[in-house]
UniProtKB/TrEMBL annotation:
Listed name of the protein: histidine kinase
Entry superkingdom: Bacteria
GO molecular function: ATP binding; phosphorelay sensor kinase activity
Keyword Aminoacyl-tRNA synthetase: no
Organism of origin: Lachnoclostridium phytofermentans
Length: 457
């Protein structure tokens, strides 16, 4: 059977309360009785001493007053042990030494029981009456043991009542502590269970401003990230299905048309070129997916070497000559030095340059310029690719690094992209422990800037 923290705390509370109650009533009564016994002894001895000091024959009536006030019985005993005065009168003339030979030699005696005199055990105090350096007699004061026990029980009852009140107050404090400490944990547990079921909209409702609030915020943040991941996965499947289905539909349509003779023989080469183009597009998409998957599984394996980044830029830019000619785009290459060496994986950096320049050409205006620059800054080299084109909407800036993400402008002006180029570029630059950033103004253009480690040669 599962026990909640609340049940465990209640059990611990009950165990502690019962244990304290049993200890209090088991050892407390005896402790209280011993303390009262000691106190009564002192009181009786003090009273007896006062009587001895003020001893006179006319004190019998005063002794009765003291007797009634203290609830005691007082004797005046002669030197030979005969009771000569008794506040209750019925023991006068009795010789104590005949009943207990050692009684007068003891200052304190407990459970004294003289047959025929007392009907219950007594606590007795004996004080000698001095006279001319000798003993003239004794003052004996007796108090019933039951009255001492009754008084100790009374005090224990008072303590028990106070203890009960204390337990009630403690229980209320316990409930408050439970509400402050355990309740938030239970609430977080319930909400986490809802999150595990996919219900990410369950409110957390933790109002305390402490560590529990921080934990709740962390869990909520995790839930939001999981929700985003879930949405991303759905979007990923939808995007990849779309990007595979479109070229496959074209390939199938043109292939069936050529097989059925719908496309004349003399025009088949044109559509075969389209089929080959779509096949290359699928191959590129598959290659990019495999690259990203390898980044996720084992990270990017780098083959670091020192190379001239300026030469790599010239080589990459040259591969886009045909595309630039169609859109009448001109490259403006500006380098801070004739040669600028960096420590990086040349193949992967060329892939980054290719993706960035390809993007720049796609979204540049006709008859525009693409500016590629390098600048040495401390131990780093900053590489910039800047176009003059449609730019990126402000609300899309943070999303462009997501896989398969395409802005509406991208889908409208260019349907050949996979939406993976920037994701791959960021993975490669991040694997070099460097940064890549973007600055864009919609309708003006976009600039991508990334850094690499500079070397001397």
């Amino acid at each position: 059977m599962k026990r909640t923290a609340f049940v465990k705390l209640i059990l611990c509370y009950c165990f502690a309360a019962i244990s304290m109650f049993l200890l209090l009533n088991t050892f407390g009564v005896k402790f209280m009785e011993n303390k009262l016994m000691d106190r009564k002894k002192d009181e009786l001895y003090n009273e007896a001493s006062i009587i001895v000091t003020d001893y006179a024959t006319e004190m019998v009536e005063q002794l009765r007053v003291i007797d009634n006030f203290l609830g005691t019985r007082i004797w005046i005993v002669s030197k030979d042990g005969t009771i000569v005065a008794d506040t209750r009168s019925n023991a006068i003339g009795i010789n104590i030494t005949n009943l207990d030979a050692n009684f007068l030699e003891q200052t304190f005696s407990e459970n004294v029981y003289f047959k025929g005199i007392f009907t219950e055990p007594m606590l007795s105090v004996v004080v000698r009456i001095p006279y001319n350096y000798s003993i003239k007699g004794y003052v004996c004061i007796h108090m019933p043991m039951d009255s001492i026990r009754s008084e100790s029980i009374y005090y224990i009852d008072v303590v028990n009542v106070c203890y009960l009140v204390f337990l009630i107050i403690l229980f209320l404090i316990f409930l408050i502590i439970y509400y402050i400490t355990v309740f938030p944990v239970r609430r977080i547990t319930i909400v986490c269970s809802e999150y595990a079921k996919g219900n990410f909209d369950e409110p957390m409702e933790i109002r305390t401003n402490d560590e529990y609030r921080e934990l709740a915020n962390s869990v909520k943040y995790m839930a939001d990230e999981l929700k985003n991941l879930d949405d991303y996965q759905k979007k990923f499947v939808a995007n990849i299905s779309h990007d595979f289905r479109s070229p496959l539909t074209s390939i199938r349509g043109y292939a069936e048309a050529m097989r059925d003779g719908t496309i004349p023989y003399e025009m088949q080469n044109k559509y075969l070129d389209i089929i080959l183009f779509e096949t290359e597009r699928l191959t590129k998409l598959t290659t990019n997916l495999l690259s990203l998957n390898s980044f996720d599984n084992k990270g990017t394996l780098l083959d670091l070497s020192s190379f001239d980044i300026n030469a790599a830029i010239r080589k990459t830019a040259a591969t886009f000559e045909g595309q630039c000619t169609k859109k009448r785009i001109v490259f403006n290459l500006e380098f801070s030095a004739k040669e600028t060496f960096v420590d990086a994986d040349i193949d992967k950096i060329q892939q980054v340059l290719y993706n960035l320049i390809d993007n720049a050409i796609k979204f540049s205006n006709v008859d525009s310029t693409i500016k590629v620059t390098t600048e040495e800054k401390g131990s780093k080299v900053l590489i910039s690719v800047k176009d003059h084109g449609i730019g990126i909407p402000k609300d899309s800036i943070k999303k462009i690094w997501e896989r398969f993400y395409k802005t509406d402008s991208s889908r409208g002006k260019d349907k050949k992209g996979t939406g993976l180029g920037l994701s791959i570029a960021k993975e490669i630059i991040t694997s070099h422990d460097e940064n890549i950033n973007v600055v864009s103004t919609e309708g003006v253009g976009t600039e991508f800037i990334f850094s690499l480690k500079k070397t001397d040669y």
